[in-house]
Design goal:
16 helices, binds succinic acid, binds fe (iii) ion, 59% helix, single chain, binds ligand C2E, 351 residues, 2 domains, Hypothetical protein af1432, 5 strands
Amino acid sequence: MLTEQEIKNGRVLIVDDKQDNTLLLENILLKAGYQSVLSTNDPREVLDLFVSFQPDLILLDIEMPHLSGFEVIEQIKSIFDSDYLPILILTAYHDRETRLHALRSGARDFISKPFDNEEILCRIRNLIEVTLAHHRIQNNNTLLDLEIETKTRELHETRLEIIRRLGMAAEFKDRETANHIIRMSKISKLLGVAHGMSEEEGELILNASPMHDVGKIGIPDQILMKPDKLDPVEWKTMQNHSELGFRLLDGHTSEIMNAAKEIALTHHEKWDGSGYPRRINGENIPLMGRVCAIADVFDALTSPRPYKQPWSMQEATDEIERLSGQHFDPELVETFMGVKEDVYNICRRHV
Ligand code: C2E
Ligand code: SIN
Ligand code: SIN
Ligand code: SIN
Ligand code: FE
Ligand code: FE
């Protein structure tokens, strides 16, 4: 644990209005081998010394002019945010009330004057040891917290990176670029926050929505890349990408994965109940799914696909508006119309 040398290096501040007393204590401490001892006869200096000297122990007199020892303790408490006050009270009073007051005020221990040299040295040594051990535990905790924080951040960043790459894998197969993922997720966050989501929920949708089409990994290339309209059987197969994505993302407990699987499952549901795979309607569709539906369709419309030419942003906006209440949540469409210039800017920045 702590060595004798470490304890003797502990800083001691002596506070007593009588110079005889401070000199006596200084001598006792220096003789016993303590290296850092400081004293003052003016209690009004204690606060400054507490900050500059950072004592590991204060030997504090109670009866002093200007400020009593109790008042000094209150001053220290007002700036020192700790339940551990390294204070040993020196008191001439023998009555129970004063001793109790001393201990209740937060001081660690007290000793009655005139004191026994051996006894006071023992008490000083023990208290310094406790203070230093206390510091050490706090430092360890701080280090531990830092380490946990670093690891957590690494894990978080790794997860985000995997998520982005997973989303890109599906989109590469679809001959789309990473830019679709970026645009679609940024539009989703913009729309969600404009609709009243918190910044935190906005970040969640930004990080989770890149995986909305991850189920396309399981769809045959000849369907995914067909340059024409899909026949009914192909279309049924294609629709499986929602469930496939959900199953791929299921079984994780992280917030992002939960949001991602909800989005994968619900991004093709429609407000009027004519979507897939569950044909749920209105607010039965999770808000994130409703938000991503608009962002996904807007971006699909303005992008080239094997089966279609890109539309202009104006045409895509008209289509979103036309499908309000049918495909899309009408309130979200209104929100979309309010922020459409920001949507266009996202698309211009990520071509
Ligand atoms: P995607 O290409 O990423 O399109 C996403 C969504 O954008 C579509 O979901 C649809 O809601 C919307 N969208 C795309 N093009 C149009 C359009 O011309 N008009 C309108 N009103 N909406 C459009 P949806 O329909 O559930 O399709 C899911 C995926 O199925 C599409 O993802 C695409 O990969 C594939 N797909 C859909 N239709 C065809 C098609 O005719 N041919 C081929 N080869 N693939 C198709
Ligand atoms: C399409 O087949 O891509 C259009 C489907 C729709 O109108 O939502
Ligand atoms: C919600 O679904 O959580 C309420 C917001 C909305 O209906 O758009
Ligand atoms: C959500 O799960 O994202 C909101 C729930 C709802 O819109 O009904
Ligand atoms: Fe999809
Ligand atoms: Fe998509």
